[in-house]
Model the fold of this input.
Amino acid sequence: MVAQDAHAHAAPQGFIRKYVFSLDHKVIGVQYYFLALVAVFVGMALSLLMRVHMIWPTAVLPIFGEIKPETYLQLLTMHGTIMVFFVLTTAPQSGFGNYFLPIQIGAPDMAFPVLNMLSFWTTFVAFIVMLSAFFAVGGAPLHGWTGYAPLSALTNSGPGEQLGADLWITSIAIFCIASLMGALNFITTILDLRAKGMTMMRMPLTCWAWFITAILGLLAFGVLLSAGILLLLDRNVGTSFYVPLVVVNGQVMAHKGGSPLLWQHLFWFFGHPEVYIAILPGMGVASQILSTFSRKPIFGYKAMVYAIMAIGILGFVVWGHHMFMSGMSPYSAFAFSIMTMAIGVPSAIKTFNWLGTLYKGKIRFQSPMLYAIGFVSLFVSGGLSGPFLAQPVLDIPLHDTAFVVGHFHLIMGVAAIFGMFAGTAYWFPKMFGRMMNESLGRIHFVMTLIGTYCIFMPMHYLGMAGQPRRYSQFTEVAYLHKLMPLNTFITYAAIVTIAAQFIFVINLFWSMFKGPKASDNPWEATTLEWTTATPPPHDNFGGHTPVVYHGPYEYSVPGAPKDYIMQTDPAGVTAH
Amino acid sequence: MGLALLVIIWLITFFSTYFFIAKTWWLPHGVAAAAPWIDHQFTLTYVIMGIVFVAAQGALGYLVWKYRDDGSKRAVDYSHGNTTLELLWTTLTAILFIGLNLMGSHVWASERFEPAHADAVPVEVTGMQFAWYFRYPGPDGTFAKTEPKLMDPSAGNEAALGLDTSDPSAKDDVVTGTMYLPVNREVALTLRSVDVIHSFFVPSFRFKQDAVPGLAIHMHFTPTEIGDYEIACAELCGLGHYKMHGMVHVVSQDDFDKWLATREAEKQ
Done:
């Protein structure tokens, strides 16, 4: 295609242009992946320190010393921020999306390779700025990843709210710019660079998920960027967007007339779509893998596409369900609540269709499939606590308790991370030319699945019993004392589950160098990345452009010679 | 591996559900007029979601075991889905989710759409890093002016709120660090914060509402049992968030009147 020829660029020579400032979407995808891998270990280490402090508040740890209550809140803020932005937004969309979106639609690269390189390195700068908050005078901010004003807008509201908070919001603003560039690139690539025959309705569901996610990102990150700039102005220039007349510790502040709720509206206008930015790519990967390893077409392809679209649209009109207790009008709570319940419908459709895909299939239990099944289980468990929180009247006892923490960790945290595990296990052979170890994969899967349930299911019980979130200690409020045994159990479960993650990392790096060589199509899958060499050449298809004849999930077609028909195979069924 | 998955998924489902049904950890005993309604809606939602949870996880475990590739020549069902089924479960889920929501909405409406009764006990609750203060307007029924310049948190009570003593209605305003309420009478709450956002959370009352600086939020509830209940802050407010708690003493109307009179006398 003409558009593709215009974007072709020669293979780079030299280490720097090949691996550091690369224009190749595959290298950039791997860069994003490893950035997220570093970030997830930082985030996980912070959560370990938090869990230890909750149970042994006076313990003196090696290196870190004693964790003070304010240190706990700083750990919590950085854990949430790093996980949401640099892991959940980075790996599923920018990592796997960058690597496989162009290949799956038959393009030689992303539409704007230079912009692509720029968005990675901007994200990298954002990450460095975020980490630097730890080393600022006063430390990292303590206002939580949601950064509610006025706590986040005043420099004297607590330790870490000076330079640390400025670095935090600056990092997020930089991240927003990077994400906007990435989103633009993804949307253009999908609309303009599809190979001949690759109609929208023949795209793998992964591409649909990346496409809708990119649109969500384009609309959401712009709002967060603006909100962040206003917050920086409030903090440093003396404006009062978010701060009314307040008195902090007897000192009358110079602000006047601002609205703390404005921040919440702007933040959650980004924050709720962000949940879907984190989970949609996981849904795409799970759909792809469930179909491939059940040897069966995905159940209800069109319904799946419409469900992703519906989730994307509804995702923008539900942000107020984070604010039922905020003092917002109780009438609008009613409207947000109905919309939130409505978003459960497309989510349920997806679950039904995943189960329908398994039904009468011929399931192979290689590790990508195990993680995808784990994803479905976690998605169901995390999803079903949603209708509790979506009802304002039930949100009264549950809002800002451990119930919410359990809910969003299961669905947007661990389910999305299982999506990443699944994607890693599935695409590893294509990315690195070798197979991962199956035994290590199974052990890691079983330990992580059971472990995460042991961590996050009990949090629902704690929340029902009234344990507020973001408490560094349970010593002061008497009714929390009797919940200590359950909290201790969670901490032990977290220690074991975190230890199990080293199995994954060992498998990852060991297999990268020592794993058995992979064939071009080890899973006998049908989509375009499995038609090309392993690892793919610089222009993805070695000088030719693929032509697509089928939908993405033609498995077990009656009368076909094999139990799968490649998308590029001119023979076979033509109906789909 | 199919059997292993079935066992793991079913065991997870069993244990998760067991602790819900056994109510090992549950909502605390509710002692406010709205509590039975909220608990009823909670139980209803829990039963429905519990059935869906067990059905979905049960099906997932069963399907992966039943349709494992066991090396046999069994043919795979070549199907791209079923539109009738899609429409059926879309409609059913929509009715279930939205219906459930509407069923609980009258409780929300009575709690938040209606103002407090005229004879309710007025109490102003003020949050500040990291304490709760409660103000009763006294016999004149009016809350006196407060002045940000006069706020002195280290002095506590009246001074912490910056009560303007030049205002004649300030004389009978009572400010305390512990909340007293008469049983079975509606409370007309005014929630304020002087610095950052706090959240007034009394689990036993099934009551929670953010206290937002710059806003006076009016709420109401009716305690129904005499006893002592804990208040916890439910919105991250700074390093002392975890210790920003307080007590509500729900007492008889006589005891309440006596307590208030004593506090009034102390002020003179």
In short: The helical segments of chain B are 2-21, 35-66, 83-112, 157-161, 253-267.
